Amino acid sequence: MKRSRPLLILAISLFFTVDALCQQAIQSVAKSTEFTIPVSPAFDLLAVSPSQITRPNNIREFKVDWSFRSWRLKPNIAIQAQPVWELFYNRPDLSRYRKASSFMKTLSTLDVSAGTIEDADQSRRASLAFKINLFRQRDPLNDMRLFVGIDSSFRKRQDQLSSQIRDVKQQKKAPGLTSDQKLRLSLQSDSLMQLYDMESRIQKERIKDVAQTYVKSYWNAAHIDLAYGRVFSFNNAALDSLSMKGQASAVWLNGSAPLGKKAMLTGVVKYLQQSSLVSDATGGDIWSGGLGIRYGSPKFNFFTELVFSKFDNPPTVGSNTLNLTQAEQISMAYGGDWRINHNILLSYGVRLDYAQGFRFKNIVPIAGVSCMMR
Length: 374
Known about the structure:
Order of helices and strands: HHEEHHHEEHHEEEEEEEE
Mean pLDDT: 78
Strand content: 35-45%
Number of strands: 12
Strand order of the largest sheet: 1-2-3-4-5-6-7-8-9-10-11-12
Oligomer: single chain
């Protein structure tokens, strides 16, 4: 009996550990059903992403973005988080989120991001942005049908195995058992625990399959995002100091709509008001809007877009005119996204800038990496 006691303790520990890990794995997979990994609003405001019409979506994890506009290493980085979701709804059990009001579910999408970049002339820009999702056609976490069927069947199988494990444990406590009987019961208990563990792994794979199928079916679901942000532009006055030369405030609306199963229509309307702190520079307002089309799948997709901008004081090349967003009269871009895995997205593109009268002005290749920190 003394020899079997460590096995019994180990079996009980494994029982509770496997059950906890299984439920945590199920919920973590369920929460990774985001349709895409868009660039953070802070980078969107700084206009350093390959696409100026970002795909609206809801990110429920911490995220880091890097942007590369040349082969030189520059500290162009942005971080992104959802504080309301993290404080109130980021739990292994999703029942609290599912019972929340529509207002609180919308508030849980509140997104905060901050970023900084360095221009070719060594000037520094920083941004802070807030975004909220006003409409989402599909919410995987709120879809009660998504995991209920396989959850109920899994719990039924696990309950049956748990009952058998308890029966074997009771039999092992019976007095007068021979050594052969104890050994047989121990082997039976180990087999049941292995089956229990195997069912947990199989269930995890089922959840992954359901989540991937859901995302593949609705990767281009409709969304509407509203964002507000601030930009600050600095000059390197000295090696160890910065002086602010301008600032700006912006509000913009991003939207997307499905076009069949393999395409998506995207759009943006943005208003930016900038002010200068440099005597020989001018500020002013910028109105911009654009449309784009994406084609592909949740793993690979390609885009093309066209953005028009209207300036009160158009920036001129070679002057100190403040142009915080590097916007042009007309910008065309093409590129794509490659979702390397669930956590990493590589985006790339080429932007063609045109001045008034469709006069070619500049070509800008851009690449970026977005990484979910889960």
